[in-house]
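Work Package 3 (structural annotation) set out to generate three-dimensional models for the target panel prioritized at the project kickoff. During this period the team completed the workflow that converts sequence records into discrete structure tokens, so that structures can be stored uniformly alongside our sequence database. As a representative example, we reproduce one entry of 303 residues exactly as it appears in the project archive.
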Amino acid sequence: MASEDKFKAEAGATEIKMVLGWLCDYRRLLVSLPFNKFVAWINELQAIIDSKKAEAKQLEQNIGRLIHVAQILPEVYHFLNRLRCLFERAKKRGKPIAVKDDCLADCRLLQLYLQRAHEGISMNSLVPQKPSIVYRSDSCPHGLGGYSSNGRAWRWYVPEELLYRATNNLLEHIASIITVWIDVIEGTLQPEDCILSMTDSSTSEGWHKKTNFKTDPVEADCEFDPEEAEVRTEICRQFAELCVKNKLVHHVQWFAGKQNDVSDALSRDDDRSDEELTRLLYLHCPEQMPQHFEIAPLPQEIL
């Protein structure tokens, strides 16, 4: 039988309760990482950053803690791949191992996630909900474009000297990030907004969900371009930092390219003015056009 004190502590009515290592505030509808765990865990990551080396046991412990955080912030899983690879190498070596710059960058980002978890996550973000804003984007080898359900549209064309230096999958991924980034810069988004990025690239959709690529040719299990892999990783980190600092709940979904005519035209039709292209889009695909559709230049912060 449970003791009377324990029964009162765990079964009594209260507005704040500890559940599975999380502090649940039922008045403010927040789930947060307790202060003692936050301080201990963020300091442990800082120790790895400062020393630039780690033991297998130390890495295993930190990965376990971060998986706990990922139960509430699943984006954390995205950046555990390189730490897991480092742990496997350290375990085989049996002594402290050097932590490379890409893993150190992951550790710094994961500290932001710990801070976000300690500040508190809205319980509303833990359940399915209707997106506040939906974004669509597309690219082709010479251009990128996209728009939001609020009607903010953009397009940008690759300078001739930069053509074909990046794969179209990478351009698709960059386009999906820029479309959200614009609204962050222009102040359209609010903390705890649930946003949905829709892309017709299944590769870009996957890159939003997990980092399953490596930046070191020695560690790779297939042929790849290390420079592009590094760019992909850096883009993913910057977008994650953008979302965590602005407290955005981001989801991504693939959809068929035949339903993406507007973004497709934005990325390709560089021979038409904004007004002419808008008229043609309203004429040929009105079902895809949001209200107040307007093509505007990219903010200077992005350029």
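The chain has a mean pLDDT of 91.
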